[in-house]
Each structure stands twice: as C-alpha cells, then as structure tokens.
C-alpha cells in the first residue's frame, strides 16, 4: 500500500481534476497550497513513480519602463508627425516639438526615427521640417500596443507578422526578453490507477496539542516529519563561573584532606603581611611599586597584639631569642601599623599562628583575594587569588613538607610524579619549589613551600615547626581550561562564559 | 627578584663544563643557587638568569655564581680563601654627613686586567646591587675609579649645591652639583635622595679634586674605569653600615676573582673617634647542632656526612663535638643569619629529590566556614534560575561606584598608590560590576541573566584594619522586556528556596526608577534592594535595554538563616 501524506494527496486530487496533467502555477492557484509545499509533495510523489515532472524553458516578452511609457503615449516619432500634420505639414522643428509636447529627452529620438523611417524631410539649415507621407502603423507600434494589453507574453503566442519588431524594440531598450522555467506535472499510469482505486490520506499535524492528547484524536493523525538536522535556536543555561567552580573543587579537596579554612579582610595590617613574616621594613616588596597602601585611614590598630609586636620588633632589630642576628636596623611601629591590601595569603597564616585557637596538630588553608600593583600580563594580574596554608605540629621536618607537597600534586593536580627544587621566601628556610608531572601537560610549577623561620614562629609564640605552603592553582586552571592568558579568569566576555565547556 | 645577564661561553669556561646550550641542563645546575634561565639569546650568547633569593647579592654576577656553584659541582669544595693585603690609604669622613649619608667603605684592587666585557659585567653587578640590595641607591651606592689618577688620602665630605663643579660621567662640560641634579639623567633619577639637604655628599682626593657626587654620579676625569685600568678604587657609601660593608665585599671579590689583589683602606670618623679598616673578608663562625639538623630535615646525618655536605655548599667546617659542627661562613654569605640558613644548604647539597617525602597522618578535622556551605547553595540556586555566574575585580573606581550609579559619593577604601585609573578603590557594592559586565557584552545575544557572589569592603572604625568585608549577591536581567516583575519573581524563588519570608517596602533610590524599587526585608531585617534600573544609569553604562536588578547582603541573610535553624 502506498502511503501518501496530506499534501501529496491534495496534489494527486488536483492533478486528477486538471485532467491528469497541469502546470505548476495552475495547481498553486487551484489548490491554494504554498508553492514550496507543492514542490516538496511533487518530489515525494515522483519518488513513488506516481507522477512525472516535465520542465520546459519558455521565453516571455515584457516591456521596459520606457517601453510602457511609449505604449501609453505613442512612439515619439509618431507624436512628432501627428503634430506636424496639425501644423500644416511644414513647420520649424522647435515649433513641432512644442506642439507635440515632446519631453526634452525624446526630441532628438523623435527626429532621428522620423527621418530614419523617411516620414519627414529636414531642411537642416533652416531647421524646418516637412511631412513626407502619412504613414500607417508600423509593426513596432502594433507590438507595443499588444504588450500594453498583455504583459509577459510567451514568445510563441506572438503573431508572426510582429516577429521582426522584437529586435527593433529590444535595440531601443523598450523591450526585454525573459526566460522562465515552467514545470508541468503529469500523472503516470501508476498514479492514474491509484486514483481510480481511490486514495485516502491520514491527516498530518505539526504540533501535538493538549486537545489532541486529551480528546484521543492523536490516534487518527500522523505527525509531520521534521528535518532533524536543521539548526535550532541556542539555549543558554545558567552556569557557575569556571574559575570559581575550580576553586570550590580545590576547597573541597583541602577540607577532605583535613584542612581548616582561614579567612580575613582584604585590607590588612603591614604587620601581618610583612613584619610578622620577617620581611624587613625596607624590603622592596613593601615599596609602593609592589604593594597597595590604603589612602585613608592610613593606619590600623595593633593594640590587641602588643606582646607579639614587641617580640617581632626585637627579632627584626637583633634576633631576640631566636638565635638569629636579625636584620640589624631600627624597627618602626608606625610602619607596622600601615594598612595595605594584602599581597599574599600568608598574612592569614601569621594571624592563625598568633591566635589562641591554634590547634596542635593543626592544618589550615585559605583562598584569598590578593593585590599587587603589577602591570597585568598573561601570567600576572593586579588582583588574583592565592591558595595557601600551614601545617603545624611538633616534630615536623622537611620530609613532612615534601610529603604535603607530593600529596597536593597527586590529589589536587592529579599529577603522576613530582620533583623538588630549592626555592626562596623571606619567611621560610628551607624553601622548596614543587613541580608536578601530569600526563598531557608535562611538568608544571605547582607550588612553593617551606618551613617557617624561627624568626617568624617564635615571636608569635609558636615553638613547634610550621610548614607553610602555597599552590600554583592559576597555572593548573589555565591548563585545565585550556587558556593561555590568566586575564580570562576575570573574563568580561559573556560569549566565552556561555560557550566554555565545564572543566 | 633580580634578573642578571651573564656571558654563556664565559660561564661554561669558568665552570669547566659543557652545557650544550641545554636550558634544562643549565637550570638543573642553577637550582643550587635558586636560579632559573629566563631567556637565552643564542645570537649574543647572553643568558638571563632570575635569582629568586633576594638575600644573596653575592650570586648576582658571573664571578659570584661560579663561586657559589663550584662546591656543588665538585670544582672546588670548602671555603674559598680570600685575604686583604696591607693598608694602602686612608679616608676621612666629615661629621656633616651624619644625617645625610654617613658611611663609606673603600677597597683598592691592584693588578686586574679588565676587558670591555668584564667592565660591562661589573657595571651590571653595580646596577643590580644599587637597585635591589641598595634600595635604588638610597641605602648603598657604588663607585669605581682608576686608582692611578687619584692622590690619596680621600676626603668624604660635603659641598653646597653650587660650590663644587666637575664633568660628570658621560658628559663633556663641567657642571655644578645643582646642575647635575637638574640635567644629568642620574641626577634626575636619584636626586631625590639628597636634594632635601642643604649640602650634598662629595668624595674628594687629597688635592681637593672631586671624585664623585654620591649617590648620583662619578667624575668623568677620575671616576671612569676602562680596559686600560690596572688598579681600581672601589667605594661604597650609604646609610647602613653593614650594607655598605657587604656591598663593598661583593664588588671587591668580583675584582679579586678577576685576578686582582685587594688592599685595605682605613676609614676615619674623627667626630666619633672611630677608625675602621675596609674591606673586611673575615669569616663568621656559627655552631650548628646535629640534632637541630635532624629536627629540621628529618635526616640522620653523622658529623662526617654533615661536614662533607657543608664543604660542598662552600662552607668551612671545624668539628667540635660528636653532635656539633662549627661552620665557617664566608663574608659574602650575608644571608646567613641563623643556623637554619646553613641547614638549608646541607639539604640542597644532599639533594631535595633524594629525601623521601612522608605524609604524616595528623588527627585534624577539615572545616570550612559554615557560611561557605550556604554560599555554595546560593550559587546553585542562582544557576538553577538560569543565571550565568561572573567574576569581577574588587578593585574599581568611585566613578563606577557612584557617578555612573547616580549616587552621592561616599567614603570607600581608596588606594594611595593606584596603578590604573579604573582601579583606585575597593567596591562597596556588586551591582556596578554587573552593569559594567553587561555593557561589555552589548553585542551578545539577549536575554542576559548574570549574577555575582562576592565580597565588598566597608569602612569600620571599630575593626583593627578599619574595614570589614561582607559577602553579597547581585543579579541583573537585561533584555528588551526586562521589568520589575521578572526580577521579583526571581527573588521570590531564591528566598523561598532558602526557606525565608520577605516583604518589599517602598523606597527612593537614585539608581532605580521611582516607584519601581523596594527594600528587601527578610524576616523584618533590611537586607538589600530590588528595582528597575533608572534610565539615567543605563545611559551612563551605555545599555540599550531595560535592566531589573537586585543586590542582597548574604551575611545578613545567612545570619537570619542560621539563627532560624536553631
């Protein structure tokens, strides 16, 4: 049984009514189906060998704009001699133009063609025009009239006597010849047989509606098939920011590894950012080119930390009881009170060491927004995030420090092996740099670490060794997100955020 | 971190090693001195090396690098011996320098052979020391002179700005000190160090001829070292005595490594009745307890092993007892302040990668701020509501926070040394950042629904940092039909899912359209604002569609949330 869709059925019936064959445009008129739908249905029926489609090329004659004008008013040369006749058969050229009401652009055309058709005699010296004969309508004029009544005339309908007028009018740019393809759709024998048997089509619908479902009508309908490859409108879903999602993942892992979160304010006392970390007060890291200072108020309060301040001061000046020589300079409390935007998260570790809540053993971490007046480049931003922390317990050694780093590399970076290099921080000794090897990424610098100097821990009242660590998570993120510019982290590009796959 | 340029071929030659232009191989060696190749210009044969240790200026030149590496590489272990010959001259220091630049150290180095390359390398070292260790010449500055042109003794004195004139280095005309500050490039760069004083430091020879105007510039006649120079005067002036001596040692040792012989000079401070001899290459002795080494490194090393490692690291060692070594620290190791500094070198000589890492299972409990849990949930809810999360800088400008929001300017945390005009203060609300975000994305398909969860910083006189940070949530809806009801519907869903009731009370807020803005009261506490953004504000941000937005204080909401759970 041949299955027909609704539009195919309609086309078959229309062809039957038309006597088995019809031009496409007739069917469009008759069936009131859109032409695209008819062609689609016709193609489908041809596939089923129920119809044939015959294409014929036809040429049509159509008037150009100027041609339509002259069809209305008469050719300029005709208008010229009609006026000349009224003027008595002889008159000055200008007079004749005036009497014929010839538009300026047509005067020379009119005179030229009148002369060419030998309708007039021109005395070019005196500019006088004389009527030579009173001519009958030429074939060009007859064609004009015919086309005035029927635009787009197929060339085969043109009376043979007018054929010679076509090239003339075309050369005068009054006429155009257009070529069109017209299709004739015809029932095949199979098609006719099918119609004899009678065809029934299941009605088709585009949209399944509530009414169709509830009424049960859906049983008797068929759904129009869609082009499932056709593109559709974009859907933009709500998403987390990829970098923040990554930070969340890092936080979860650290909590799982037994670390407690430390927090603090973006504005920090120079004391915690530098002094408590044994960074001398004339250190380049404290210059205005390296750290942001708060304009107002300039100073905070160290009233709660009097003892620590005293110890830190002495340690800087002469080493205090730490067995160090100290930095050997005059320490300024005013300098320690200065307010800055924190330049690293290590200030939070210093605060934790000083806190009464410090646990032993203790493991702490922070995810801190930090600030430095660096000119932003592909690897550095003036505002960035640091993930770092401490491990504190009696008897911790460099081996434990390496163990912490290795754990981070395996757990957080998903690395396969690690490598250590000597590193430098003013507040740790020894100091270690961690490189992690990850398949597909190669070796990446993944962290810096060290054991806090006695000049850091003792003045804060901590006798146990403290491992301080920081993770190079930005580089890890850049690799995971496949970006080579860290500025993309603070992306202002909604298009990027929408399209970025979840990492 | 200083980056130093050295000659690759000379480096190879001095280390007696084939480095094969292999950066990885070079980095492996530089790890001993915490250095890393930043750039290798093969054409010029220049290696740019970043030295991470800001406290080891002795490694900031090729001679120092080789000196530091030779033990680790087995070229020459132990303490290199450097000595100072007899005293060959004197310097007299003027009392009037006391508050300006009181200290000077001098050394004479005879019999050096200087190529143009070596001179360039010396200038490079001088520059690095002046900038980093000398704090841009504030703390110390270096001068080198052709000793054969100078009549000793020297006088380190003062002169008024127009009293003395000489031809400064690189110039042809005589200038007064005042003119040098006004016209010489070094005067313009470093003039601020001395210009505040009525008199300036000047170094004279015994005939009163000026050698230099520290810390600005040397004399072109006496203070210029060329490849013909055989005998050099090194001079360092400064404000910190130790720093002056350390700098003098480092520069002098570089010249000694180049085949020179150092001789001392006596520096007299008559007003203090003190005379000191410079330079001083004396070693410092430090006792290191082996139990302490074990406590730090977790390595069991006996005295012999420890002594071997120390020798590799370039120290001298005398053993005292079974569990203590006396370490002789060379004068240029100014970074050694505490035994831990020596212990690190033991570990480096041992090789970090030969130490077995150990993961210590400590009985600690992981913990995050309880707020963090709810912030996580707030983020999930906003994402569920179809909003894209964005991340903005907390640094912004009053123009964005107030002018463009049609708000009166309030006090916020401003920076005294901003680097960018668009980043001069910390944000006190999130909404401007979101409007800026949308204004950067006008070409992107609408509707745009974005949110941010982040901290703002507010002034708080009671806090020790005079500020406090608060967590906020802001959301913005931007499209042709965005309106109050859409925003309210989102807010409804958000707060309802946190199990919170709220009412809106009418208010007037210059950033929003009058009559279309309300205060969000959660359990009768004002926690934020919801409204249609005023067209004047949209115009400021060049937005072309209406915006409905809200901003909530998450801190307050979570406090209500957490207290209502009890």
Any overview of this molecule?
- The complex is a heterodimer of chains A (503) and B (566).
- With 503 residues, chain A is of the alpha+beta class.
- Chain A folds into three domains: 6-57 and 180-209 and 219-223, Winged helix-like DNA-binding domain superfamily/Winged helix DNA-binding domain (Arc Repressor Mutant, subunit A); 65-175, Arc Repressor Mutant, subunit A (Orthogonal Bundle); 244-266 and 343-499, Bira Bifunctional Protein, Domain 2 (BirA Bifunctional Protein, domain 2), CATH 3.30.930.10.
- In chain A, 37% of the residues lie in helices and 21% in strands.
- Chain A has helices at residues 6-17, 24-31, 35-47, 65-73, 76-86, 93-100, 104-116, 139-149, 165-171, 189-197, 210-215, 242-256, 270-273, 306-318, 333-337, 346-354, 398-411, 454-457, 473-480, 494-499, and strands spanning 21-23, 51-63, 90-92, 120-123, 128-131, 153-154, 175-187, 204-205, 222-223, 260-261, 267-269, 339-341, 362-371, 383-392, 417-422, 428-438, 442-452, 466-471.
- In chain A, strands 10-13-14-18-17-16-15 form a seven-stranded mixed β-sheet, sandwiched between helices.
- In chain A, a hairpin with a 5-residue loop joins strand 15 and strand 16.
- In chain A, helix 4 packs across helix 8 (139-149), helix 5 packs across helix 6 and helix 5 (76-86) packs across helix 7.
- Chain A starts with 5 loop residues before the first helix and ends with a helix.
- Chain B has 566 residues and is an alpha+beta fold.
- Chain B folds into four domains: 3-69, 2-Layer Sandwich (Phenylalanyl-tRNA Synthetase, Chain B, domain 1); 85-278, Phenylalanyl-trna Synthetase, Chain B, domain 3 (Phenylalanyl-tRNA Synthetase, Chain B, domain 3), CATH 3.50.40.10; 284-353, Phenylalanyl-tRNA Synthetase, Chain B, domain 1 (2-Layer Sandwich), CATH 3.30.56.10; 370-565, 2-Layer Sandwich (BirA Bifunctional Protein, domain 2), CATH 3.30.930.10.
- Helix content of chain B is 29%, strand content 29%.
- In chain B, the strands form six sheets. In chain B, strands 4, 5, 6, 7, 10, 11, 12, 13, 14 and 15 form a ten-stranded mixed β-sheet that branches. In chain B, strands 19-22-23-27-26-25-24 form a seven-stranded mixed β-sheet.
- In chain B, strand 2 and strand 3 (46-51) form a beta hairpin.
- In chain B, helix 4 (116-133) packs antiparallel against helix 7 (241-257).
- The longest helix of chain B is centred in the N-terminal third of the chain and has 18 residues, at 116-133.
- At the A-B interface, helix 12, strand 10, strand 11, strand 13 and helix 17 of A face helix 8, helix 10, helix 11, strand 19 and helix 13 of B.
């Amino acid at each position: 049984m041949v299955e027909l869709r609704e539009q195919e059925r309609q086309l078959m019936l229309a062809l039957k009514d038309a006597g088995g064959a019809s031009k496409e445009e007739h069917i469009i008129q008759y069936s009131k189906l859109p032409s695209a739908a008819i062609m689609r249905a016709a193609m489908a029926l041809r596939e089923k060998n129920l119809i044939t489609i015959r294409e014929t090329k036809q040429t049509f004659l159509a008037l150009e704009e100027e041609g339509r004008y002259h069809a209305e008013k008469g050719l300029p040369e005709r208008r010229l001699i009609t006026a000349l006749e009224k003027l008595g058969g002889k008159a000055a050229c200008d007079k004749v133009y005036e009497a014929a009401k010839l538009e300026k652009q047509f005067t020379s055309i009119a005179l030229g063609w009148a002369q060419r058709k030998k309708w007039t005699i021109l005395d070019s010296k005196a500019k006088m025009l004389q009527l030579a004969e009173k001519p009958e309508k030429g074939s060009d004029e007859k064609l004009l009239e015919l086309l005035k009544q029927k635009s787009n005339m197929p060339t085969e309908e043109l009376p043979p006597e007018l054929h010679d007028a076509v090239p003339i009018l075309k050369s005068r740019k009054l006429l155009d010849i257009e070529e069109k393809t017209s299709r004739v759709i015809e029932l095949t024998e199979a098609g006719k047989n099918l119609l004899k048997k009678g065809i029934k089509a299941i009605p088709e619908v585009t949209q399944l509606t509530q009414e169709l479902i509830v009424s049960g009508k859906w049983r008797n309908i068929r759904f129009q098939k869609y082009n499932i490859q056709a593109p559709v409108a974009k859907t933009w879903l709500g998403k987390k920011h990829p970098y923040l999602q990554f930070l969340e993942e890092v936080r979860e892992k650290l909590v799982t590894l037994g670390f407690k979160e430390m927090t603090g304010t973006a504005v920090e006392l120079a004391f915690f950012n530098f002094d408590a970390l044994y960074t001398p007060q004339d250190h380049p890291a404290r210059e205005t080119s390296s750290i942001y200072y708060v304009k107002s108020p300039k100073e905070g309060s160290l009233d709660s930390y009097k003892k620590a301040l005293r110890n830190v001061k002495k340690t800087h000046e002469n080493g205090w009881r730490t067995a160090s020589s100290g930095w050997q300079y005059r320490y300024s409390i005013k300098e320690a009170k200065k307010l800055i935007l924190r330049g690293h998260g290590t200030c939070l570790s210093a605060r934790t060491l000083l806190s009464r809540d410090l646990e032993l053993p203790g493991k702490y971490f922070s995810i801190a927004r930090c600030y430095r007046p660096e000119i932003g480049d592909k690897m550095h931003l003036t505002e960035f995030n640091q993930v770092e922390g401490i491990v504190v317990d009696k008897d911790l050694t460099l081996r434990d420090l390496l163990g912490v780093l290795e754990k981070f590399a395996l757990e957080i970076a998903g690395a396969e092996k690690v490598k250590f290099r000597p590193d430098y921080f003013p507040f740790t000794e020894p100091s270690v740099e961690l490189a992690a090897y990850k398949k597909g990424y190669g070796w990446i610098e993944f962290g810096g670490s060290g054991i806090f100097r006695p000049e850091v821990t003792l003045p804060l009242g901590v006798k146990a060794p403290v491992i301080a660590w920081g993770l190079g998570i930005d580089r890890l993120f850049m690799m995971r997100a496949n970006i080579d510019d860290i500025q993309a982290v603070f992306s202002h590009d909604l298009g990027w955020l929408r399209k970025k796959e979840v990492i | 971190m200083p980056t130093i340029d050295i000659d690759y071929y000379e480096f190879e030659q001095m280390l007696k090693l084939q480095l094969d232009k292999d950066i990885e191989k070079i980095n492996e060696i530089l790890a001993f001195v915490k250095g890393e190749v930043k750039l290798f210009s093969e054409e010029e044969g220049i290696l740019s090396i970043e030295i991470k240790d800001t406290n080891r200026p002795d490694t900031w030149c090729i001679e120092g690098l080789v000196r530091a590496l030779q033990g680790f590489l087995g070229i020459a272990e132990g303490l290199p011996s450097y000595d100072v010959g007899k005293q060959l001259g004197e310097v007299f220091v003027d009392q009037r320098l006391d508050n300006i630049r009181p200290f000077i150290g001098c050394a004479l180095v005879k019999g050096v052979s200087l190529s143009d390359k070596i001179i360039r390398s010396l200038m490079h070292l001088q520059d690095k020391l002046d900038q980093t260790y000398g704090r841009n010449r504030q703390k110390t500055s270096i001068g080198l002179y052709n000793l054969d042109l100078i009549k000793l003794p020297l006088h380190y004195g003062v002169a008024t700005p127009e009293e003395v004139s000489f031809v400064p280095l690189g110039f042809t005309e005589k200038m007064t000190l005042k003119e040098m500050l006004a016209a010489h490039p070094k005067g313009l760069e470093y003039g601020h160090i001395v210009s505040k004083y009525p008199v300036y430091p000047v170094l004279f020879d015994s005939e009163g001829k000026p050698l230099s105007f520290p810390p600005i510039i040397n004399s072109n006649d006496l203070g210029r070292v060329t490849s013909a120079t055989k005998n050099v005067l090194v001079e360092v002036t400064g404000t910190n005595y130790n720093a002056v001596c350390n700098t003098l040692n480092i520069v002098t040792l570089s010249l000694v490594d180049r085949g020179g012989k150092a001789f001392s000079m006596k520096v007299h401070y008559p007003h203090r009745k003190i005379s000191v001899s410079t330079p001083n290459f004396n070693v410092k002795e430090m006792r290191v307890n082996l139990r302490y080494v074990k406590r730090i490194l977790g390595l069991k090393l006996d005295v012999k092993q420890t002594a071997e490692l120390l020798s590799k690291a370039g120290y001298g060692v005398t053993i005292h007892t079974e569990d203590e070594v006396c370490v002789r620290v060379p004068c240029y190791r100014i970074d050694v302040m505490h035994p831990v500094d020596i212990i690190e070198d033991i570990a480096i000589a041992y090789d970090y990668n030969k130490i077995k890492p150990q993961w210590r299972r400590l009985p600690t409990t992981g913990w995050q701020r309880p707020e963090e849990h709810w912030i996580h949930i707030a983020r999930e809810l906003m994402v569920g509501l179809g909003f894209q999360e964005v991340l903005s800088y907390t640094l912004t400008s009053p123009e964005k926070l107030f002018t463009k929001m049609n708000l009166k300017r309030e006090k916020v945390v401003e920076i005294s040394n901003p680097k960018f005009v668009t980043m001069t203060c910390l944000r006190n609300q999130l909404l401007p950042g979101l409007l800026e975000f949308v204004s950067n994305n006008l070409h992107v398909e609408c509707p745009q629904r974005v949110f941010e969860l982040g901290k703002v910083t507010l002034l708080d006189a009671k806090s020790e940092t005079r500020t406090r940070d608060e967590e906020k949530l802001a959301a913005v809806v931007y499209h042709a039909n965005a309106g109050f009801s859409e925003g309210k519907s989102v807010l409804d869903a958000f707060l309802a899912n946190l199990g919170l009731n709220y009412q809106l009370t009418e208010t007037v807020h210059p950033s929003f359209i009058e009559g279309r803005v309300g205060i969000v009261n959660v359990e009768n506490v004002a926690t934020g604002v919801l409204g249609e953004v005023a067209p004047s504000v949209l115009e400021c941000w060049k937005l072309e569609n209406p915006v409905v937005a809200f901003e909530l204080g998450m801190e307050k909401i979570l406090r209500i949330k957490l207290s209502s759970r009890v």
